Automatic annotation (TrEMBL):
Protein name (Swiss-Prot/TrEMBL): CRISPR-associated protein Csx11
Record InterPro entries: CRISPR-assoc_prot_Csx11
Source species, domain of life: Bacteria
Organism of origin: candidate division KSB3 bacterium
Length: 1029
């Protein structure tokens, strides 16, 4: 029996030390002088200059890179017993690795040669693509301290990068301290927990700096950060090194025929996390389950990166954990020192963290074939997660000896045991109590209670925001980003077609002029001027899975597209999901920091004499104050009760009315005084009785109810935001927020999306779903409703006709108005600010000949039909009446006035809801702002408006006619009826509106959008028109 994992554990110190060196191999790029050099405004700055700087500035770091500490070097040389390395090796070899490849190979410095190869894999440069033809940037003003260049996100959003972004001295000092205080003194480390602490500190230092700066200054390759490129190189390097340690002895990078010998695979651990979370009854249940998944992910990460360092994590979300691992060998069957297979070790972790509720399915966990190209792992990420299968042995064991016992209402697997009064099993109870205990002990600056996250009307909104990244993760949509602008597409196609096949003499045809010029003399020479050999080895491997069979004409189109596109390299795909993840994180921060939802300053604290000492620890109990039910949490450590309700809602229910013209501070103070008085009056005679929620009159086990006498009331300052983040992932963001603020949040998301993603909005849709529900609604109902909404997809196969186009030369913007060719639906006007960007803002056209397009027009495969190549045209060059493909972003909502309402959420194959003539949801994402504007016009927010009775009468009248007439919105008779109704309901109001405002309200009334606007503002937000106040 071979013990590959044991071998990796024995060489752990050496492998991880080499990994640290690999992380620093481009350290010299983290300096503004590097940018100045590449932009042509300063002398050369490279690794040798860095070492000279470090010699005096950071001696510890210099020593580590140039001449490692003897103990450190001895640990590294432990590899020599398996794979020989030169005794003269130092990490300065890694610093110059991309430039010293040939020298490293000549000196048999395989470690440096391997990193050089990994560097090429990560950046894509090993394929010899035409990077020399990219557009180089110039510093805005090289003589000024305010000079800058531009850094792009993965989707073309430009941000200025200045010298202040490069905190080189700070980074070097931090690394110097880390080496001297954490790394050198730790050797030999051996202990896994110690390595976790060392690497955690190391990566914290790097992630504060590397993600902010560029690895490449040339456009449009200036979207990849130093962190992205380094992480990719480290992943390839570590997996290859682990393979050699496991199998012993070096092997050359290429065989005698020049074919690469190192291959990699992607190992993916997938769970149906949403289903697992959706079983939660209470919010602490859900948060406890979320922590179980996070803990499982973290343990698997440690297992594969530190315990047995065989790979590197390359992707993570709530359901997926992906690693780059060696391509040679049956990885999942590798054995540890006890003979346990890696597969069993991984499955055991998820089984332990979920207490047997989940057995990880690893049947299709590895890519079928080892491949040097890893971008296609996106296809694995896009596949539906396997159904969760519980561990039958563990579940069966939990029922041993149990008869006449009810099943747990949370996990629906285990029996209710000692916690039967709460209808859940001990495992689920432990998770629930753990979250509540953590909340009590963490300073109470957050909330974990639905009642506390509700608004003043007792309503919450579950916000779910989802990017459709499918075709970006699998690489197909990178074909739609135009990288090389110098050569026209049609010329490349023609010359590619002429380069295939053989001459009359039987020789392979050479590179035709445009191809040779673009690709470069070196590459042409490497392939002996045989174009077909170049195509087969360099281009075809990236396309064979997308287009299995291709004739010569298709191959010519592939060649032209491949050479002009933004290359879907490993770090670029990482950059894509990091961009969307950061977008969601920024939204979360904006909400949690009080920018969109006001922070709550105080909670009520109750103490006194308790009727029993047997009170369930950290449990939320209910009590009744003046006939109104409210919640408090028992803080066992401090022996006190903490309010877990929205105090504004509670005061409102108890009859509190703020003093007229009171300031917000005066209103809050008056509210707290009122609540204190109400509690004091309620508890004056017999105290307050607390009981288990939903069981106010039933006699249950001890601890389910108690009485508090001699009540002492205290107002304690906590300052928290009443929101709860559920998931913040690359493709999905979910958060619970007070209902009164959800439209502010929705408008903020819309504005930020249009600002950051407008150049690719036609190819990167964002779907926003909002579920409103009363505070005592079971959480699983809201989660199920959200899950149903998240299943909708906007049809990428839909085509739209351009009915209006307007371009502004001064602002660098182009406006389009699109009409769907099948249904006639008109999308709100979209505006894209593109300036002089000819890389990102392109539209797929339908049936448009590339020969009739602009010099920037090119062809690429449609993402939903990759065998079909269509012309992409720059937005500024589009013309009216052209047909384009557009994948719209959408916005949908539902008010769960009953839990059964969620079953009405269904979508057809075109992503539409409803039946017959009343179909209106989901709306286009761009209509969020329209909804707000329509309400402002009706409610008189900025002028004369209607009363509540007028608005409701108007809506009822129009919707009744729609149902009884069974008419379409554009039928002339119905249109006239709507106009007459609007004019008659309030002639003064209607006539005061501008013509464009009248058209907006009229179209909303005709389409049915008006009824939805009223449901949002009058039913969910509980807002009233100005005329009522």
């Amino acid at each position: 029996m071979s013990h590959e994992l044991k071998k990796l554990a024995e060489k752990r110190d050496a492998i991880l030390l080499a990994e640290i060196g690999a992380w620093l191999h481009m350290l010299w790029k983290y300096d503004w002088r590097f940018i100045q050099w590449h932009c042509g405004s300063a002398p050369k700055y490279d690794c040798e200059k860095l070492l000279n700087d470090l010699r005096s500035q950071s001696p510890g770091l210099f020593s580590f890179l140039d001449a490692p500490d003897p103990q450190t070097l001895n640990s590294l040389h432990a590899l020599s017993s398996v794979i020989p390395i030169p005794q003269s090796f130092g990490f300065k070899h890694f610093l110059g690795c991309p430039q010293q490849a040939d020298k490293a190979i000549q000196n048999e410095d395989h470690l440096s040669a391997l990193l050089n190869d990994a560097h090429g894999r990560g950046s894509g440069i090993e394929k010899g693509l035409p990077y020399n033809t990219l557009t180089n940037q110039e510093l805005s003003d090289s003589s000024s301290s305010d000079s800058y260049i531009y850094a792009n996100t993965a989707f073309g959003f430009q941000q200025k990068l200045t010298s202040s972004c490069y905190k080189s001295d700070k980074l070097r000092r931090a690394l110097n301290r880390w080496i001297e205080h954490h790394l050198i003194n730790a050797f030999p480390v051996q202990n896994v927990e110690r390595w976790k602490r060392i690497l955690k500190r190391f990566h914290k230092i790097l992630t504060l700096c590397f993600p902010e700066v560029l690895a490449e200054t040339r456009k449009p390759a200036n979207d990849v950060t130093l962190h992205d490129q380094t992480q990719a190189a480290v992943a390839f390097f570590k997996a290859a090194l682990a393979e050699r340690v496991a199998h012993g002895a070096w092997k050359d990078l290429k065989d005698a025929q020049g074919k690469p010998q190192y291959t990699w695979r992607v190992l993916v651990c997938r769970t149906d996390t949403f289903d697992y979370l959706s079983k939660a009854i209470t919010l602490p249940d859900l948060l406890g389950r979320r922590e179980s998944i996070k803990s499982a992910h973290a343990r698997v990460h440690t297992l594969l990166e530190i315990d047995y360092p065989l790979g590197a994590e390359i992707y993570r979300d709530q359901s997926t954990l992906a690693f780059l691992v060696p391509g040679e060998g049956a990885i999942l069957d590798w054995r540890d020192e006890n003979g346990s297979a890696l597969k069993k070790r991984i499955q055991q972790i998820y089984r332990e963290e979920t207490a047997g509720e989940m057995t990880l399915q690893l049947r299709d966990a590895l890519l079928d074939d080892p491949s040097r190209s890893v971008y296609t792992f996106g296809n694995m990420l896009n596949a539906a997660p396997p159904h969760n299968i519980p561990d039958s042995v563990e579940v069966t064991a939990s029922w041993h000896g149990k008869t006449q016992v009810e099943i747990c209402t949370c996990c629906r697997l285990r029996p209710q045991r000692s916690s039967k009064g709460r209808n859940i099993c001990d495992v689920c109870l432990t998770k629930r109590v753990s979250r509540s205990k953590t909340w009590c002990a963490s300073g109470l600056d957050t909330t974990v209670w639905l009642d506390e996250a509700a608004d003043k009307n007792g309503r919450l909104v579950l916000l779910a925001c989802q990017f459709d990244l499918r075709y970006w993760l699998n690489g197909i949509l990178w074909n739609s980003v135009h990288s090389i602008l110098q050569e026209p597409y049609k010329d490349l196609v023609q010359h590619s077609r002429q380069s295939f096949g053989k001459t009359k003499k039987g020789n392979y045809k050479p590179f035709q002029s445009a191809l040779g010029k673009l690709i470069g003399k070196t590459i042409v020479s490497n392939y002996k001027n045989r174009f077909e050999a170049f195509f087969d080895e360099v281009l075809w491997p990236d396309w064979k899975d997308i287009i299995p069979q291709a004739d010569q004409q298709t191959k010519a189109a592939i060649t032209a597209t491949h050479l002009l596109r933004q290359q879907p390299s490993f770090p670029r795909i990482r950059r894509a999901w990091e961009t969307t993840l950061q977008f969601f994180r920024d939204i979360q921060d904006k909400i949690e920091q009080g920018g969109l939802v006001p922070r709550i300053p105080n909670r009520l604290i109750l103490t006194g004499k308790f009727s029993t000492t047997n009170i369930w620890k950290y449990y939320a109990y209910d009590t009744v104050i003046k006939g109104i039910e409210t919640s408090f949490v028992w803080d066992a450590d401090k022996e006190r009760l903490i309010s877990a309700d929205n105090l504004e809602y509670l005061a409102k229910q108890l009859g509190f009315r703020p003093r007229e013209n009171a300031s917000p501070e005066e209103e809050a103070e008056g509210r707290l005084s009122y609540l204190s008085r109400m509690i004091a009056e309620q508890s004056r005679d017999r105290g307050l009785e607390f009981y288990e929620r939903n069981r106010p009159s039933q006699a249950e086990e001890e601890g389910s109810r108690f009485r508090l006498r001699d009540v002492q009331i205290e107002v304690e300052r906590h300052d928290y935001t009443p929101t709860v983040s559920i998931l913040t992932e690359p493709q999905l963001f979910m958060m619970l927020v007070p209902a009164t603020h959800f439209m502010d949040i929705a408008c903020h998301i819309q504005n930020e999306y249009e600002r950051q993603f407008s150049k690719v909005r036609n190819r990167l849709p964002l779907h926003l779903s909002l579920i409103s529900f009363p505070r005592r609604t079971p959480l699983y109902a809201a989660m199920d409703a959200a899950q149903r909404m998240l299943k909708r997809k906007s049809g990428e196969q839909q085509t739209w006709r351009i009915v209006k186009k307007r371009r502004s030369e001064t602002s660098g913007e182009t406006m389009l108005r699109l009409k769907q060719t099948d249904t006639g639906v008109v999308m709100p006007d979209i505006t894209v600010k593109h300036d002089d960007d000819y890389h990102y803002p392109y539209f797929f056209t339908k049936g448009f000949d590339v020969d009739h397009g602009s010099k920037y027009a090119f062809k690429a495969p449609l993402p939903h039909a990759p065998n079909t190549f269509e012309t992409l045209e720059h937005i500024s060059k589009l013309q009216e009446d052209m047909e384009v493909y557009y994948t719209p972003s959408t916005f949908d909502f539902e008010l769960l006035d009953t839990t059964g309402r969620r079953f009405e959420i269904q979508y057809d194959d075109k992503g539409r809801r409803g039946k017959g003539t009343t179909t209106r949801r989901p709306y286009f994402f761009e209509q969020i702002a329209e909804c707000r504007r329509i309400w402002e016009l009706l409610a008189g927010k900025h002028g004369k408006g209607l009363t509540t009775s007028q608005i409701k009468a108007l809506s009822m009248l129009i919707e009744e006619r729609r149902r009884s007439w069974k008419c379409q919105p554009d039928e002339p008779v119905f249109q006239q009826f709507v106009v007459d109704s609007l004019r008659n309901i309030g002639a003064g109001w209607w006539n005061a509106l501008e013509k464009t405002e009248q058209q907006l309200v009229q179209q909303a009334a005709q389409s049915g959008m008006l009824a939805d606007v009223l449901e949002i503002y009058m039913e969910i937000l509980k807002q009233k028109p100005e005329q009522d106040t």
